[in-house]
Amino acid sequence: MNIVIEAGVTAAIAEDGALTLLSPHGAPHVYAPEASAMWIALRQHRGNVGDAAAVLGSAWDADVWAVRRLLQEQVTDWQRAGLVRTTPAPVHVS
User: Fewest C-beta in 10 Å: which of 3, 6, 85, 94?
Assistant: First the structure.
């Protein structure tokens, strides 16, 4: 599964590590610092959930499959909020 950010979504990370995502309509969605790490890892790995989970699992010294489940739960929340969508194939950024 790969993640694509919906057009018009913006992100900001506060000094305390909290993630704020603004929907294209300006609605704020605030998340714990762990979500910031997930967001950054997904961005760094072109939306590839498996790659992002592997990096986070290593950084957090945690089971990669457990991290992947947490990441998928977070992605589901972002989807429900209309902030991201999934694609079956890798997304290539030009």
Answer: 94
